[in-house]
Design goal:
Largest sheet: none
Radius of gyration: 23 Å
Number of strands: 0
Order of helices and strands: HHHHHHHHHHHHHHHHHHHH
Shape: globular
Structural class: mainly alpha
Number of helices: 20
Length: 453
C-alpha cells in the first residue's frame, strides 16, 4: 500500500477518524500499532512474522540490557544487524538462481523470502531504541510504545529514521484540537507534488539510463539524464519524507525534517547535513562517534570517515556500486577536510564555484546509485565521454525536462521562503496549484526509490 494509492487515502481517513474518537482516547497507541501492522502486511503478509520477531526480539534484549547493559546491548545490536545482513547480503554467499540453495528445505524457504520492505529503517530504529533507552537508565517502556516507535506507519518503510530519544517522549494522549492541520496539509501537498509531478514525470526520461536503453542515447543526452536523475531522486525522497512528516503531525507526532535544500551545499560535509539528514545523524551518533570521531588525530578521523561512508553505501544494498558510491563520498569528505576553514572565508564567486563542484560530483556519483551493476554504470559513463555511433538515437524533449525540474530549482533558489515571508496571502493559491498539478499532470505511477532499501 503505497502513499500514492487510493487505498492508502481510505486507510488514513479511517484511522484518523477512529484515532480521535473519545472511545479510543485510552487506546490510541494500540490503534496506531494495529493500523501500522495492517499497513505493512497489506503488501507482504507473509513477512509479518519477521516484523514480529524483530520487534519482540528487540524488546527482550532491551529488558535484559536494563539489567546488564555491557552484555545485552551488544547482543541486541548484533541480533538486529544479523537480520539486516541475512536479508540484504545473503546472495553474496548463495546463488539465487540455483534450484536448491542448500538442500535443506527449511533453510531454502528462509533464503527465498523476499527482502522485507523497510528492513533497513526499522533495524536502525531498533538499534536506536536499545542504545538511547538503556543509556538513560529509565524504566523499560511499555511493549505497545516500543511497537509504535518501531513500526509507526508513516516512517516504517522509508523513514525518516527517528531516534528513540526524540520519539518516545511524544507518546502521550493526543487531542484533535492540538493537531497542526495547516502545517500538516502543507507538508502533505508539497510531498505529493514533488513525487507525482516532478519525480514520476522525470522517471519517464531517466528510465533510459537503464541497460540496455542507455545504448540508444547520445553523449549529451546521457549528461542531461544524469542531471535529471539527480533532481528526480531528490524530489522522490523529499516527497516521501514530506508526506511522512505531514502524516505524523496529523496523529500528533513530529518526525525529523529529512532534507534541507541539499543542492545549495558549498561543501560535501554540508551536503551530508542537508541530504537524508536522519541517516546522516544516525551514522554520526551510532557509528562515527563510537569509532572515535575526530578525537584521535587527523589520520584516524580520515579512516573513520571512510569506514562510515563505505558502510553507509553498503547499507543501501549488497553491490559493488553502492560500496564504491559510499567510498567515493568518504574520499571527497577526506580531501576537502583540511581546506574547510579556508574555504569558509571565500567570496561570492568562490561560493558559486564550490556549489557547482559539489553538485557536479554528487550528481556524477548518482550514476553508481542508479545502476547498481558496476558494468552497466561504467558502460553508461563511457558513453558520456566517448560519443557512441548511433543510427537512430532516442529523442528527449528538453523543454519537458526543464518544466519538471523547475520546482526543484525554484525551491533551492529560495522562492519558498520568499512566499512564506512576503507573499503569505498567496500561499493558499500556491498550494492549490501544487495540488492541481499533482492530480492532473502526474507522471506514470512508480514506486518510491527508497522502497528498495
Amino acid at each position: 500500500m503505497t502513499f500514492t494509492s487510493w487505498q492508502f487515502g481510505v486507510f488514513v481517513a479511517i484511522v484518523f477518524g477512529a484515532y480521535y474518537l473519545p472511545a479510543f482516547r485510552n487506546f490510541q497507541v494500540q490503534l496506531l500499532v494495529l493500523a501500522s501492522v495492517f499497513f505493512y502486511g497489506y503488501g507482504q503478509p507473509e513477512l509479518l512474522p519477521l516484523l514480529l520477531v524483530a520487534v519482540l526480539g528487540t524488546h527482550v534484549f532491551l529488558a535484559l540490557a536494563f539489567r546488564n547493559r555491557a552484555v545485552w546491548l551488544p547482543a541486541g545490536i548484533a541480533f538486529n544487524l544479523a537480520l539486516l545482513a541475512f536479508f540484504k547480503y545473503k546472495f553474496l554467499f548463495v546463488d539465487a538462481a540455483a534450484g536448491q540453495l542448500t538442500g535443506v528445505t527449511p533453510v531454502d524457504v528462509l533464503l527465498r523470502l523476499p527482502l522485507p520492505i523497510g528492513i533497513s529503517f526499522f533495524v536502525f530504529h531498533n538499534i536506536s531504541l536499545l542504545v538511547d533507552l538503556t543509556r538513560d537508565g529509565k524504566d523499560p517502556p511499555k511493549l505497545a510504545d516500543i511497537f509504535l516507535y518501531i513500526i509507526f506507519f508513516p516512517q516504517l518503510v522509508s523513514g525518516p529514521i527517528t531516534r528513540a530519544a526524540q520519539f518516545m517522549p511524544q507518546i502521550v494522549p493526543k487531542r484533535v484540537g492540538d493537531v497542526h492541520f495547516v502545517e500538516a496539509a502543507k507538508w502533505i501537498l508539497a510531498g505529493y507534488f514533488f513525487k507525482l509531478y516532478v519525480a514520476n514525470n522525470l522517471n519517464e526520461m531517466t528510465s533510459y539510463m537503464d541497460f540496455p536503453l542507455y545504448e540508444t542515447l547520445r553523449a549529451q543526452d546521457r549528461w542531461l539524464l544524469v542531471v535529471l536523475y539527480s533532481y528526480q531522486i531528490y524530489a522522490d525522497f523529499f516527497g516521501y519524507s514530506a508526506i511522512a512528516l505531514g502524516l505524523g503531525l496529523l496523529f500528533g507526532y513530529r518526525l525529523p525534517v529529512n532534507f534541507d535544500l541539499p543542492y545549495i551545499s558549498t561543501s560535501f560535509s554540508e551536503f551530508w547535513t542537508r541530504w537524508h539528514i536522519s541517516l546522516s545523524m544516525w551514522l554520526r551518533t551510532y557509528l562515527y562517534i563510537p569509532l572515535g570521531g575526530n578525537r584521535h588525530g587527523r589520520g584516524r578521523t580520515y579512516l573513520n570517515l571512510m569506514i562510515v561512508m563505505t558502510l553507509g553505501g553498503l547499507w543501501h544494498g549488497a553491490s559493488l556500486s553502492y560500496a564504491l558510491w559510499g567510498m567515493l563520498h568518504g574520499l571527497l569528505l577526506v580531501i576537502e577536510r583540511p581546506f574547510l576553514a579556508m574555504l569558509r572565508k571565500s567570496g561570492p564567486v568562490m561560493v558559486i564555484a564550490r556549489r557547482s563542484t559539489v553538485f557536479f560530483c554528487v550528481t556524477m556519483l548518482w550514476i553508481l546509485f542508479k545502476l547498481p551493476d558496476i558494468d552497466h554504470a561504467l558502460g553508461f559513463m563511457k558513453g558520456m565521454f566517448v560519443p557512441p555511433d548511433l543510427f537512430n538515437p532516442t529523442k528527449l524533449y528538453y523543454s519537458l525536462a526543464l518544466l519538471y525540474v523547475l520546482p526543484v530549482l525554484i525551491q533551492h533558489l529560495g522562492f519558498g521562503s520568499f512566499v512564506s515571508e512576503r507573499l503569505r496571502r498567496w500561499e493558499p493559491y500556491l498550494y492549490g496549484m501544487l495540488a492541481a498539478l499533482a492530480l492532473l499532470e502526474a507522471g506514470p505511477d512508480t514506486a518510491f526509490i527508497y522502497f528498495q532499501f
